[in-house]
What we know:
Elements: E1 4-8, H1 32-43, E2 47-52, H2 57-63, E3 73-78, H3 100-105, E4 115-119, E5 122-123, H4 126-137, E6 146-153, E7 164-171, E8 177-189, E9 192-196, E10 202-205, E11 210-218, H5 221-237, H6 247-256, E12 261-266, E13 272-273, H7 280-292
Helix pairs in contact: 1-4, 5-6
Amino acid sequence: MKPTLIIMAAGMGSRYGGLKQLDGVGPKGETIMDFSIYDAIQGGFADVVFVVREKFRKEFEEKVASKFKGKVKYTIVTQEPDNLPEGFKPKAPREKPWGTGQAVLSAKDVIKRPFAVINSDDFYGRESFKVLSDYLNGIKEGEKGNFCMVGFSLKNTLSESGSVSRGICTVDKDGFLVKVEEHSNIRREEKKILGENLKGVEHSLEPSTPTSMNMWGFTSDYLEESDVLFREFLKQNIDEPKKEFYVPSVVSTMIQEGLATVRVLKTPSAWFGVTYKEDREKVVSKLREMTEDGTYPSPLF
Length: 301
């Protein structure tokens, strides 16, 4: 059974400005998300679930989802700060949703098979979707805890316009994920790549280090365990306005508790995206080149 693709599109790009998920960067005004959907369907995914905010759902349907009608099966769900399990309510209203972990849980009622999760504003490349789809298609019915992650080489995930934050991965000798540690302020300085770990300690990073760009593959038991962990998270953080519940935290906990293994899949693709305004023209140029050389049709759909 072909897998489902969840696209997390509820965030606003604070550094870039505006709703960058709707920014037309392709030759015919396509969004980065359009290219991801094209690659996913070509690579073997059955359908798409969009996670958006209610306040721009109408605009999203008109500008993005409408082009897929009759071509790609899709569902739209919403992620809201007050969409919480029964019994949880913060003392003060919260403006932002609760992070990527809540985004995926927003789709739990429509997920019926193994599924993948990606960001809406990252370009992952055709090969990445193919290796992810092939892995998920190989999962046996009813199998639990068989997760995967597409690991990009760190050198292929940097921005020339400024520093970035990335999930730096530790992988064992058999190719399974041990942990993901968030690093910030990652940038090139001369011939080195430098970054800061969670304690704020700066150190150099190897260019080939496997890096998580939020491209995951899960069996459905992820959702069950994530729901339990989200409730535990809320017990401790319900009144913390800036705390967020992240997918990597769920994955790490399930690994530590022996509930899952995560195969790290290799991809030759180079990531790119619009982290800063200055990145936009580079993305436009790359997508134009890939269309002109025949990698993508024009228009996509």
